[in-house]
Amino acid sequence: MKLELTDQSALRQLPWGDLKSYLDAQGWHLAGRIGDKALVYVPDPAMTDGVEILVPARDDLGDYASRIGEAIQILAEREERSALDVYRDLTMSGLDVVRLRAPGADASGAIAIEEGVVLYREAENLMLSAACSVVDPRRNYHLRKVTEATDYLKTVRLGPSERGSYVLTVYSPVQPRLGPQQQLDLGEEPFARTVTLRLAEALGAVKRAADRALADNAFGPFDAAVSQGVSANLCDAIARLAETARGVDIGLTWARTRPSGRPRQTFHFTPEVGEVLREAAAIFRRSEPMMDTRVTGFVVALDRPVDQFDGNATLRVLIEEKPRRVRVRFEETLYSQVIHAFQGKSAISLRGDLFPTGQRWEIRNPRALQVLEDQDGDEAEDSLGMMGGG
Q1: pLDDT value for 65
Q2: How many domains are contained in the chain?
Q3: Is 191 exposed, middle or buried (0-12, 13-18, 19+ CB in 10 A)?
Q4: Residues 315 and 373 in one domain
Q5: In this structure, are residues 353 and 364 in contact, taking their beta carbons and an 8 Å threshold?
């Protein structure tokens, strides 16, 4: 796209606050005001070359677009860049930007459609895993269940691909900081900013964990990094990106309207590191309890005869769409229901906390038990695929 400085629509859409933030970040100085209409910026108060930029302080001014256009032209000349490049930078002043670069693009900057599908899908998973970690750092997430994280994802936008192999851009809008820009009150960041900060922290932590895990042949470094945003979901997303794109670079830059006090950061992940992360994700999932989960299945064994039942039983239930044998100890108040379901081969439904124990699972704190009297046991087991191994 070619931007003409007379393109009134494009120029009027640019918020004047973004221009102001850009000038602040680039070291320009506020030299004065023209009533409530404009701010006067100069590159250096000590210089007398007469260069100044008038930033309209209201978007209802008749010459708003013209003033924005003049500012872009002055910046382009001083920075020796095109007006379009300056305009693009200005439009991203209020955005934290995550860039995913696939080095395997061809000479035209294109990638295979299958690779593109993975790139876009895992970009979403990457952002969502970081948002989930801000809410509650855990080893594994059932991603769509963390409401604040999924609400945040609705505000995230995909930007256009950039030059430099194939670069997918993810835009995360952040609220502008009010008050002096140099006062970085990082303890009161909006949720959107905490997500991108956590993503940067998690990317650095997972890369260090992978290096240490390879050196020590141990999973411990990953487990120790959970509080920094490392999870099965993050590991899986990076692994798929690195393996599909034959290596991936993930870069982060911060909105000028809300300075982070951090430089641009870039993290590189090779396919070999992706293999390590995939294994780490699998271990995370095997060791992560599933809290307050409803399961449906059958009582397949009691530890003792019915007349001596002590509450210990074995169920066969579906966990993540796979049939599993699980151990459970029921409270005495539930004995009669459990025995009834066992003898009648009736399906049951209950809530509980699922914990992996070796190759099996156990349900702790079973509650809200229901015997599903209207289901025929044999037919229900067949329809649920419960007769398989596990």
Answers
A1: 92
A2: 3
A3: middle
A4: yes
A5: yes
pLDDT computed for residue 178 by the predictor: 63
Residue 113 sits in the same domain as residue 31: no
Which DSSP helix (H) or strand (E) runs through 320?
none
Q: What is the pLDDT of residues 18-36, one digit of tens each?
A: 899 888 878 899 999 999 9
Measuring CA to CA, how many Å separate 283 from each of 141, 218, 359?
A: 14, 11, 12
Do 76 and 198 belong together in one domain? Answer: no
Q: Please say which residue of 236, 253, 287 terminates a domain.
A: 287
What whole-number distance in Å separates Cα of residue 101 and Cα of residue 251?
8
Query: Counting beta carbons within 10 angstroms of the beta carbon of residue 127, is it exposed (0 to 12), middle (13 to 18) or buried (19 or more)?
Result: buried
For 60-104, write each residue's pLDDT tens digit. Answer: 998 999 999 999 999 988 888 888 888 888 888 889 999 998 877
Residue at 150 is within a domain: yes
In a domain, 161, yes or no: yes
Range of the domain at 168: 95-175+186-287
Neighbours of 320 (CB within 10 A): 9
| C-alpha to C-alpha distance for 168 and 244, rounded to whole angstroms | 14
Q: Is residue 85 part of a domain?
A: yes
* pTM to 2 decimal places: 0.68
Query: Which of 287, 316, 336 is where one domain is finished?
Result: 287
Query: Which residues have a Cβ under 8 Å from the Cβ of 3 and sit 6 or more positions away?
Result: 10, 83, 84, 87
109-157 pLDDT per residue, tens: 788 888 889 999 999 999 999 999 999 998 888 756 688 999 999 999 9
Is the residue at 30 inside a domain? yes
**Could you tell me which of 154, 151, 153, 192 has the C-alpha nearest to residue 175?**
192
Summary mean pLDDT of the chain: 86
